[in-house]
Design brief:
With about 170 residues, the protein is of the alpha+beta class. The chain has three helices and five strands; from the N terminus they run βαββββαα.
Length: about 170
């Protein structure tokens, strides 16, 4: 399988926050934002794998900033690391200032997707080669996150989590 870069999976979705999508404080519902992030991440995962993909987990979500009614919201998703059949997708959410046009990072999330065939059986996917400093940082951190998840789920012994152990050794 051919190596791919995170940029090849990049997905950008821009939309407006409408009144029907807001809570009583006139901010975007968190669930609405989660759905937007899931759609963008799904497209990124499909672009990387060129297969059907399913959401395996939402590993991290940070609602750092409210997204007000009328905001222009941009959701950017890229595959940060590919494993055998699964891939981690990092999502950045930006809001655009109405007057200046400046973008501010509002939220971020990390989802895991699995590539499957037509009957839902996991299938191998291409490896990824990060290019930018940020892509390299996210790529390295993805393995630590995966190992931590496996240890917490009881699917990996702590002593086997070499990347996690390396954080604490000098």
């Amino acid at each position: 399988m051919q190596l791919k870069t995170p940029e090849q999976s990049k997905t950008t979705m821009t939309d407006l926050v409408l009144p029907s999508e807001t809570n009583p404080l006139n901010n975007l519902f968190g669930g609405e934002l989660l759905a937007r992030m899931d759609r963008a991440a799904s497209i990124a995962a499909r672009r990387h794998s060129r297969r059907i993909v399913v959401t395996a987990s939402v590993n991290h979500v940070a609602f750092n900033r409210a997204v007000p009614l009328g905001s222009v919201v941009t959701v950017e998703a890229k595959v940060s690391r590919a494993f055998k059949t699964s891939m981690e997708v990092f999502i950045d959410v930006w809001i655009e200032d109405r007057e200046s046009g400046n973008r501010t990072k509002a939220n971020e999330a990390i989802y895991t997707f699995v590539a499957v065939d037509e009957i839902g059986k996991p299938v191998p996917i291409p490896e990824i080669t990060p290019e930018t400093d940020l892509e390299k940082e996210r790529y390295a951190a993805a393995l630590r996150r995966k190992q931590l998840s496996l240890v917490l789920a009881g699917k990996m012994k702590p002593q086997e989590a070499t990347e996690l152990k390396a954080l604490f050794e000098e």
